[in-house]
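--- STAGE predict ---
source: upstream dedup step, 1 unique chain passed
mode: sequence only
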Amino acid sequence: MAYLIVCATAFLAAGLTFFAGFGLGTLLLPAFALFFPIQVAVSATAVVHLMNNLFKLTLVGRNADLRVVLAFGIPAGLSAMLGAWLLALLSDLPVLYQYEVAGRAATITPVKLVIAILILGFALMDILPGPTRAGFGRKWIPLGGLLSGLLGGLSGHQGALRSAFLIKSGLTKEAFIGTGVTCAVLVDVSRLTVYGFSFLSGHLATLGEGNGLALLLASTAAAFGGTLLGSRLVRKVTLVALQRTVGIMLMVVATAMGLGLI
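--- STAGE serialize ---
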């Protein structure tokens, strides 16, 4: 059952990331958490996320816009290290509200609530017609990188905010996908460096006590398969459809985060 749930989630979520630019970590973490302690689930998700982004980089990295990568990715990578450092400092902030959903604790924290409100606002700009669709423009890209990287290091939810800025930056569909993947790798490497490889190795040792390592490898392979499928399907999607998809996904993530479900 564990293989079915985790691998199916990895496959579907990895395919979705080609359309929305985010989603694998958000969806895969709860799947791992069904079978492992949350700390171990976080580490396993981080490994699959990084490996899949590196795989995507070989497929679409050549389409990245170098100027946007420098303007967005460099600030994002630097602020991701700051966010990872702040994670330890802010871990003791009081919880605003906690309740249970299907036997699982849902926790609303100040950080999650602020992020959810920001993401929801960006999502409405993608979906609603009118002047808001004019976009942020490239002048906002460095700020977007700083915010996205900071939140990525702090909570791991960097992809939604990254897509919210990049989808409005005037990139082509191919450049949007390639640039997002390249920036995601920069953030992943930066935050994992601060988290420390000792943190990962300790939790991977826990995975190794059972069939956890095999499940980790299987879910990584499933994510690769979803990525390959997504790379073929995305060629048939228009930029407008991609933008609407991003907007809808942002709203889903923002709502779930605001309710403390992720």
